[in-house]
Amino acid sequence: MSLNVLVVDDSAVMRQMIIKTLRLSGVPLGEILQAANGQEGLQALNAHWVDLALVDINMPVMDGEEMISRIRADAMLADLPLVVVSTESSETRIESLAKQGARFVHKPFTPEILRNTIIGLTGVSNDQPGDADFPVSGPDF
Amino acid sequence: MTSLETRIFRSAARTFEELTFLFTERGEDLPDVACPGAREKCGRAQATIVFTGPLDGQLLLRVSENLLPELAANMLGEDDQRPESERWDALGEVANVVCGNLLPGLAGNKAVFRLQAPRMEACGVEETPPEHLKARVPFTLEGGCVELLLCVRGELPDLPPPSGDG
């Protein structure tokens, strides 16, 4: 199964970093969509089938918290797997996002952390039995 | 360095190292202005992050312009011929990550902050320090100059002393 992924971040460079990490992660990918804020992200979700969304928190127009709340309130989108990729460190906010079923990856992140979070959330991996090594090693992203 | 300056420096050093693979050259024995003449000789690029919450203020990240191409290229792991817009975007993202990682150390792990989108601009010689300046942390980064300025309205809470090496 290939995952259609939506990446929502107001930084084009960060979106490219996340997409590059996804491509190196071994997670089978279908279509990769991008959005620069929560409003664009919701529009993309309404126009395309998406299996997983990676969402930043602090964004202009509509932030990630509001986007996630709207997703959970929408019967068609409520079950969408969500990963928050953010500099956010507030335990209060992280707990609030966890209650909405979102996983959390802190920036800067390692490719391994992003990959393991996605596999843990979706159960989807290209790994062969016994293949425990991530294909990318090195510094954090 | 004061406790506040140490926190700012550590947050910046970790972010540059892990996000851009550029390493700081400041040690405890280096002078405060580790890049003498930078303000006069280097063109500088600045990213500003305005934050609100338990503390209101802004974090300014200034780098010499020779660092800009490296930031985007290193973040994306590609050649340094990145478009101009990506170079500035990379600077803004570094400032965003530094700020996001710094604030909980100042206001506690439960504090909730709102960070505005980075504002990027070229900057010349500083005529007057920005308002509410609480700390200025200059250092060098693999041949370039970096300066972080933290501005906070009102008084900062007492900070516990930093632990470990600086």
Alpha-beta classification of chain B: alpha+beta
| Class from secondary-structure proportions of chain A | alpha/beta
Extract low-pLDDT stretches of chain B: 28-34
Biggest sheet: strand arrangement of chain A: 2-1-3-4-5
Return Rg of chain A in Å: 14 Å
- Helix content percent band of chain A: 25-40%
Overall pLDDT score of chain A: 87
Uncertain segments of chain A are 128-139
Number of strands of chain B: 6
Global shape of chain A: globular
Order of helices and strands of chain A: EHEHEHEHEH
Spatial separation of the terminal alpha carbons of chain B: 9 Å
Multimerization state: heterodimer
Number of strands of chain A: 5
Strand content of chain A is 15-25%
Structural account:
The complex is a heterodimer of chains A (141) and B (166). By secondary structure, chain A is an alpha/beta fold. Chain A contains five helices and five strands; from the N terminus they run βαβαβαβαβα. Chain A has helices spanning 12-24, 38-47, 64-73, 91-99, 111-122, and strands at 3-8, 29-35, 52-55, 82-86, 103-106. In chain A, helix 2 (38-47) packs parallel to helix 3 (64-73). Chain A is globular, with a radius of gyration of 14 Å. The two termini of chain A are 26 Å apart. Residues 128-139 of chain A have low confidence and may be disordered. Chain B has 166 residues and is an alpha+beta fold. Chain B contains four helices and six strands; from the N terminus they run ααββααββββ. In chain B, a hairpin with a 4-residue loop joins strand 1 and strand 2 (57-64). In chain B, helix 3 packs across helix 4. Residues 28-34 of chain B have low confidence and may be disordered. Classes of the chains: A alpha/beta (141), B alpha+beta (166).
Which tags fit this structure?
heterodimer, A: 141 residues, alpha/beta, 5-stranded parallel β-sheet, globular, disordered C terminus, B: 166 residues, alpha+beta, 6-stranded antiparallel β-sheet, 4 helices, 33% helix
